[in-house]
Amino acid sequence: MARIEIARVSKIYTGGVRAVSDVDIDIADGEFIVLVGPSGCGKSTLLRMVAGLETISEGSVSIGGRRINDVEPAERDIAMVFQNYALYPHMSVYKNLAYGLKNRGTPKAEIDARVAEAARMLELEPYLERKPRALSGGQRQRVAMGRAIVRKPAAFLFDEPLSNLDAKLRVSMRGEIKQLQKRLGTTSIYVTHDQLEAMTLADRLVVLNGGRIEQIGAPLEVYHRPASTFVASFIGSPAMNLLPATVFNGGILIGDQLSGLSANLPNGHVTLGLRAEDLRLVTQGTGMPFTISFIEDLGAQRLLHGLCGGHPLVVAVSPDLDLPANIRLTIAADRLHFFAVDTGKRIEPGPAPVQPAQNGTETAASEAGMTAGF
Asked: Whole-structure pTM over 0.85, yes or no?
């Protein structure tokens, strides 16, 4: 195990193209870090720089206190698991697992012991004499992981290892990876574009966008307090609803309608963020009308897609809920998110929101100061 320090690391290609810019991550000994972001955000490039498969243009990477910028990949004491397994097709499972150790001159008795231990952990014992072509996709991925485990490296690097598996197998394999990493306690960096995979695996998430870090934090911290509109829209399924809004004298207008929401923010335009599961349906009282366009039934959850104040909105409800003819929406005041229009960065309102202005037909939506209606 080892601490990994990534200090102001950049990757600049010919022509000045920056794939990664000024990335700082301090990874604790035994921590499981997941790099997540859309295709082209720089996550695989960053991983390959740690592995030594890409040169580092600026900054430095240290593993266990040793600067490794100019150290050959084989000397970095890391093991990498790729999405395409990278197994030797002509070798048995046993020989695939033992190959790296044999090349390093490890005594045969130790090779046998390490291979046996990895095979037992990964339930590969019945398959040690089989060739990779006789294995399922999940079994091949276990062999790839086993090849990393037998080396007992300071760190594991995973480059989208589950992307070639079907949906059901991905779920079971990510559980196995999580349990295995906790059991071994090996410092790990895992790359994925799948935000659900990232949320379930990570001790901490590193959300990347355009080669830069948008946010680092525990999965639930990132989910409940996204640092930007990019994070809000990328982490979570469905994505957070983002509506153009205006703060005026403490009240919030969506379009030209006073919503009944309040925020202790300066007057001006903001982006209002609302999680689909935080919205509640009511049939009377305050609230803004919601018109359903279509419904997604997902089994454990039902997603209502529609319009609210002229803007697209998604609401998550129980599949057993009877939908009323006239729907209005409310939301807990502490579930509101605000972002700057120009930068997309999170805005924190003051601790004591003022009540919005009211007229004869509009009320300040509040139940004990906690629930606001549109």
From this structure: yes
